[in-house]
Amino acid sequence: MPPMTFATTPHLVSPISGRTPRIIQGGMGVAVSSYELANAVAQTGEMGVVSGTALDVVLARRLQNGDFNGDIRRALAAFPDQEMAQNIQKTFYRENGRSDKPTYRPATKLSLVPAKKTWELLAVSAFVEVWLAKEGHEGLIGINLLEKIQLSTLGTLYGAMLAGVDAVLMGAGIPAEIPGALNKFQNNEEAALDIDVAGSTINYKMTFDPKTLGPILPAPLKRPFFIAIITTHVLAMHLSKNPATKPDGFVVERPDAGGHNAPPRGRVEYNEEGEPIYGARDEVDYEKLRAVGLPFWMAGGYSVPEKLLEAKDLGACGIQVGSLFAASNESGILRELKDELLADLLDTEFKVKTDAKASPTGFPFKVAAVQNTIAKQEVYEARPRLCDLGYLREPFEREPNTLSYRCSAEPVDAFLDKGGDISETVGRKCLCNGLLATVGMGQIRPDGYEEPVLVTFGSDLKGPRELIKIHPKGWSVQNVVDFLSSKV
Ligand SMILES: Cc1cc2nc3c(=O)[nH]c(=O)nc-3n(C[C@H](O)[C@H](O)[C@H](O)COP(=O)(O)O)c2cc1C
Fold first, then answer.
1. Residue nearest to atom 3 of ligand 1 (CA)
2. 297 CA to centre of ligand 1 in angstroms
3. Which atom from ligand 1 is nearest to the alpha carbon of 256?
4. Which of 7, 25, 53, 154 could form a disulfide with 208 if both were Cys (CB 3.0 to 4.6 A apart)?
5. Terminal Cα distance for the chain, rounded
6. What tens digit of pLDDT does each residue of 296-349 get?
């Protein structure tokens, strides 16, 4: 197929490589695609992406961990409103880290009408992550957000734009309102999002006006390139029909991808291991996708050089890759856990499960069977349920204009008291605590209980297994980019 040209692509050109990235490093929460990882990828001339999930807690915990290399305080010192940034530093920074006090401060849970301090922490934390990812080079940096986590979206987007983020990538739902919000924030104007509320009898909106943060605001801000993460051509066609919802491009993510996956379309059937089975309705019609006329990247199982060529033949600009980067030296996953994961790759029995029950979102979620993590039944059962972070809480209406919040991984009685259905609690895992533990920010409760780790990874292990043979001691971002580009 002749190379496709897109009217909008010049907007997304890396000054380092002088071209549109053919590899996007996928956004991986929580803090797996940390600023260090994204920074390293951007320097290769491809695009690095920081995870935008739970950045408020990530910033607060990095400061409580002692910020020993000074990165976080250096980025805070670059924030346009120093009073705001220094207040946050004063609140959370512990010079000696967790040595004297292993338990992290409790986090403020998000809600429909957050306090000013919550907006500040959301905006400042996104600024810090993007600023550090962009530090020291001219390459491209994106931020990844999940449509399912709505209550932090506006504050995070705004903070990322203050730091000059080049792209916003968003999936796990239908991100129809994001192009509009980016247009508003460009001029420091108020933006709004419809919020999904279970049992709602009225419409609920969340609004954020940057001016409420104070007179800090350089404008106009750069309008980032917006990439919707979708699974098939169907949503591409739907979103691009209306100028208000039309993104600038797409990542088309197939079911092998790590993290959350969209459920199969239509009536869902499961294999004997309880994994959802994808069928003909989940296939991509590439002719229809190309006819939309927007640039796209393929994701999920594009882990070897031949797959990059295949994606290009399909008309894609390239691929988005997660797992290979998650296992790289620069990712946020704890070193000892990464080494265990790399050793597991050599075991032919090692498997990543598409767990239909684990995520409180109800979406399938990939769980890697790493030892001593919550993937193991005995570790799961030993964990006393607790919801102290609450990013995946679902708002529900008690009466018009009175909302409460519930999570199907919280203590079962509490969930039932809030009108939740017991069937939804079965097999649910606390993703918030598990994923933070994976990157060395796990809570140690006052009674000494340590939150167990939860590792998500893609189910296509071909690329990781090839790379471990070439680099038995582990690999770097540059190794991944060289490997994937070796046949281009
Ligand atoms: C550890 C991990 C965490 C992930 N977290 C997210 C996330 O927070 N948001 C998102 O849109 N995708 C997430 N993904 C998906 C990646 O961005 C990427 O699209 C996917 O991993 C590509 O498939 P691959 O793993 O086969 O390369 C995650 C993937 C991994 C491996």
1. 28
2. 14
3. 26
4. 154
5. 15
6. 999 999 999 999 999 999 999 999 999 999 999 999 999 999 999 999 999 999
